[in-house]
């Protein structure tokens, strides 16, 4: 990566799973130089799937449990703007690599911590996954159909939206504040906090009396007939978001059905109208309905799989997907008018050159030779 608004920003990423790697991917996509510190293979209990989420980095293998390995990370932190770690609270402290010693080495360091529950609180030391964090955040209970159990939205809300994205936001805010203060600080990014924040609009709806609370019976959770998905004749689906009156009229026109209510916001008519809409959508294929609604302002679109999305004409026109090492994947976002990020590359593109990487991070050649001899790096 040699372009983007974060060019010149150096980030040390201590290897972890899902949320922190995603946050570091976002930062690497925007031009930051991210160096991942990987654990020795024999010490890994679980590793991620690799691939797109790892793009844009170099990597080094360092055993942080060894004194020499911990010393190597402290040495590298002198050259870093940011350190990202995703362990349970206290782990980095036990390794001698917590915020206090690291900020002692580099007072300008932004020390970003990614956890599920946060650095304190009754649950801080307990295990969990996305589904647990969003459950406690109040983000899981509203998901699902009326009368059915809550259904997780993959691991999007906790790991990535509430986790990695808020981690990246916290890092950027701390870097901006450092420009004024000249000092680094600790960023405590917790998935439960981020997922809670994502629910702010729902709290607003509730306060305004527009969210009765029963799952699957509200405006935006599949309760409304005009905000739902419908199966087509070929077993695929269309997404309908015809909330405003003008879009609702265009939906009726496209489907060829008559208005059955004076107030389409009245929940009393939603179930009957859903049945009418469902019957209409089953008469044609997804491709046919896509063509019908192409020129109508009805907020009706095809439901695409992640693997189909890259071929949609809109995504193609915006170059919203890129191909890296034969793998089609989302392109960096957002867009910039001047500092356009470079096309991402796979991790360790060009091979893992340990000497070149460390020299690039300010390690002198003789110092590098010492690191090899004492086993600091592999």
- Helix fraction bin: 25-40%
State the secondary-structure class. alpha/beta
Low-confidence stretches: none
User: How many helices?
Assistant: 14
DSSP, total strands: 11
Q: Note the gap between the termini.
A: 24 Å
Could you explain the architecture of this structure?
There is one protein chain. This protein is of the alpha/beta class and 378 residues long. The protein has a six-stranded parallel β-sheet with strand order 3-2-1-4-5-6, sandwiched between helices. Helix 1 crosses helix 6, helix 5 crosses helix 6 and helix 6 packs across helix 7. The chain is elongated. The protein starts with 9 loop residues before the first strand and ends in a 5-residue tail after the last helix.
Give keywords.
14% strand, alpha/beta, 378 residues, 6-stranded parallel sheet, 36% helix, 11 strands
Topology record:
Layout: E1 10-14, H1 19-29, E2 33-38, E3 57-61, H2 67-77, E4 82-85, H3 91-94, H4 99-105, E5 110-115, H5 130-137, H6 156-181, E6 186-190, H7 191-198, H8 200-207, E7 227-231, E8 237-241, H9 245-255, H10 270-281, H11 286-293, E9 300-302, H12 313-317, E10 321-324, E11 327-330, H13 354-360, H14 365-373
